[in-house]
Write a structure and sequence with these properties.
247 residues; 8-stranded parallel beta barrel
Amino acid sequence: MKFGVNAWVWVSPCDTEALKKLAPTVKQMGFDMIEVPLEGIGDLDYKTGAQIIKDSGLGVSTCAAMGPDRDLIHSDPAIRENGLNYIRQAIDATHLLGGTNLVGPIYSAVGRVWQQSADDRAKDVDLLVTNLSTLARYAADKGVVLGIEPLNRFETSFLNLADQAIEVIDRVDSPACQIMLDTFHMNIEEKSLGAAIRKTGKRLAHFHACENDRGAPGSGNVAWGEVAEGLRDIHYDGPVVIESFTD
């Protein structure tokens, strides 16, 4: 495994100057990689950023920031298209930075919650599968893997469980579209953290390790022994990243 930390622990947004100061610190702290949030595609000079990260001896992953105008299953086609364009740009940015994994809730705006009938949900799943299939082809051409992240019920009404992410990913059926799990969200939604990890299995491309309050692992009540057993059982050897926030 490689262990990393998200720049959101210290800064938002992560621009070129912030990355220049932060990358050496992350290395000195003993991390193997840094995760760069892509809030605004123009926040960072990616060629310079790639050199900063390389010079610091770090690997890199990126995470998507899905806002109200970036939503792959919205009823407004313009918002859906803007979401697709943003993810394509984020894929390009990940490639330019020298990363492989672009992760996050790559389906709907964070914080958008709504009532959904079974029929409405089925239609949204169909729409997401179509859009992710398109994005997966684009990502594959760039050597990038999308890690689709279930969020807790207070941040989305759509994908809350590993089971729901598995349904989507299995239908997309592309090596460039996999799953990311985050212990903060899992601690709210899953009956068993270990069982969710084991069920995800080979689909798990990225893992966020955060406490129940988004604090440092080991400082709260997440069942880390269960998490470790689950990851061992599936022979997980991908990134494990701490993602907290400046506030």
